[in-house]
């Protein structure tokens, strides 16, 4: 292996080769101390040098991610930031607007990564990107899978859980208008039976109402039997508010089908009505 643009000292080379030969992508500070048999201060000096040369990036305190040699010195882009974020906590998954962007459901790119975990942690920064930590109740912590991010396995909500999570908390995906766009794009690629089962598992009437209303609003073709199933669940209990009642004190529309009051500006929803019917069928992730 030739180290050209990222020349290494013998000790630095030993660390990188140790990781690459074992197919490992992460290493802890204590591992480096043990491997090189050096004092903690010396290990810290080597770590700083490897980070400066672009070989390691800090994932969390005392944990580092290898930037593989084949990716070159400019490897740390948006997707590798997801790999870094994945080292912050375990268990976890990447979700909301971040997952929607990964699946191509939205073209909006934000300097935010949404990381969902039962572990209570503070928000943090990775370079110029904010990592927002979300603690979900246990019944909502499901529906994720491993995806490959430039050779790194990253746990991410699947397509169905992504759109459900976005409907559950629109503020974590750009707001109600953007969530409508996400659902319109995603609707052609959803497993509707899985979507129904996920909504049943969460068992939240307000969520079912928001999801159902959004699906109707964008004109997505939800199977009739699943729509009837959700409508039956939406029929119980008082009316649900969708939007921010503090900002829009009076609803601009009342939907009796899904029993929902819309406190969302018409401007925010502009362009999303019946959008799913205009979306081309997409293949891919």
Instruction: Determine the fraction of residues in helical runs and give it as a percent range.
Output: 25-40%
The tally of helices reads 11
Principal-axes shape call: elongated
CATH architecture of the largest domain: 2-Layer Sandwich
Low-confidence parts: 1-6, 72-77, 281-285
Radius of gyration (CA) equals 23 Å
The percentage of residues in β strands lies in 15-25%
Span of the ends, CA to CA: 33 Å
Structural class: alpha+beta
Order of the strands making up the biggest sheet: 4-5-7-6
Order of helix and strand elements from N to C terminus: HEHHEEHEHEEEEEHHHHHEEEH
If you consult CATH, what is the topology of the largest domain? Answer: Beta Polymerase, domain 2
Mean pLDDT: 87
Tell me about the biggest sheet? Answer: 4 strands, mixed
The tally of beta strands, per DSSP, is: 12
The top level CATH class name of the largest domain:
Alpha Beta
Number of domains: 2
Describe what you observe in this structure.
- This protein has helices at residues 10-21, 29-36, 40-52, 78-85, 96-102, 159-168, 176-186, 192-202, 205-218, 224-234, 266-269, and strands at residues 26-28, 56-60, 63-66, 93-94, 112-116, 124-126, 129-134, 144-149, 152-157, 240-243, 253-255, 260-263.
- By secondary structure, the protein is α+β, with helices and mostly antiparallel strands.
- The protein folds into two domains: 10-71, Orthogonal Bundle (Arc Repressor Mutant, subunit A); 78-278, Beta Polymerase, domain 2, CATH 3.30.460.
- The protein has a four-stranded mixed β-sheet.
- Helix 5 runs antiparallel to helix 6, helix 7 crosses helix 9 (205-218) and helix 9 crosses helix 10 (224-234).
